[in-house]
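Entry 12.
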Amino acid sequence: MMGRGAMTKLRPGVALAFSVCALSACAVGPNFKPPAPPTASGYGSALSQNQTAAAEGPDGSAQRFVAGKDIPAQWWTLFQSQALDHLVEQSLQHNPDVNSAQAALRQAHELYLAQRASFLPTVQAGFSAVRAKNAVGTIANPTSLPQPDPYYNLYTPEVSVSYVPDVFGGTRRSVESAKAQADAARFQLGATYITLESNVVVTAIQEASLRAQIAATKRLVEIQHQLTTTVRGQRGLGTASELDLLTQQTSEDQTAATLPPLQKQLGQTRDALIALLGRLPSEEPSETFRLEDLALPLELPLTLPSKLVAQRPDVRAAEANLHAASAQVGVALADMLPQFEITGQTGSAALAIGQVFGPYTGFWSIGGSITQTLFEGGALLHRKRAADAALDQAAAQYRAAVILACQNVADTLRALQADADALKADAESERAAKAQFDIARRQLSLGAISTVALLTAEQAYQQAELAVVQARANRYADTAALFQALGGGWWNRAEGADHE
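Predicted 3D structure (tokens):
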């Protein structure tokens, strides 16, 4: 225990420590200011009109761009598929990339809290017990006992306090940097969420597209086989040549050769979907996807570049890294200035354990120090220059993130409009091919054309249908890409979701 007198003598030093801290009202180094948002009013020629083209048939409705429309946190529910909703939620719970990002955020937050403890003094308690023999022939007895006993015990409990006043703000800049790094980890987690959500949605759309393409291709193979059988019969009757038969067989084989790659893509797409769920290939989900089970969102959000930078988590993470780099410049500068420290110590020393904290056994000390590095081979100066270079690098990376974000939005806007035009053209082609096929069927019933002519018309219709399937899937994928490019609504997540 510390005596009242010792406490009274320590108070001036403690007061001095807090006074120095209070007087240091500013921190060295640049004060961070968020970069100004882009002043661009739009995305140039990427958006030529406020809605996409419309086409007849499934998924042919025009999509309208709504400026300033907010994005829900669960934006994938706009596709109106319970199976898709379930798999996205499963991936968010079990995907290892999410688990890794969550752990990284917890680590960054704990490091920030640990750095913040630098504002407080360090208090340590200790106890030592020593058994010693004194050289009585050459050194006086340190115990001051009358008998010349060279052996003695010494028990010393003590408490020491050290405090480093943040005179030039180096500690504050270190805490500021740690806080910015924690913010960057939080935004990286948001980016991980959005990327995963988008990947699950796009993979499900790809699966639906491949299933439709496989079905259409199988029908084409059947038609081609019927054509080959018909030509072979005509060859036997002498109404078709050997060249006609070989040409038809080649066409059938070429169509059949396109089926295995589609089946391989479907299998690999399923494997990718399973991996996104955080499962092994043997744990395939029961859910499957078809284009008919999805609904195309007709109102799409459109965010201006000035607001986009606040919505994109990768841009926010780049801004947080810029903030951390700015604070590190202050840390490097503070290291070049004098370092202050205040220390205090109190305790008791006794020759017997029962005499500890007894009369005349207490001791205390208090002191302060100031040090200034005079020569270190230029290390501090080079660290300061390195911090300046890191700040320049972070600024360039932030600008690159802003440019990439705007490019992503522009690309998806172009894709949405172009693929809507493509669907319109493919739908018209399909409609014409179907009309031709219907006419061919009526003509066949009247005996005006051959079976080969009918099958040829049906083949053209099936090929047009295959193009429509691909165009429909592209519109779904473009829509998911736009939600991802605009930030995916992470800011509407429930508070604390990032710490799950």
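Annotation: The first strand starts at residue 64 and ends at 67. The chain has ten helices and six strands.
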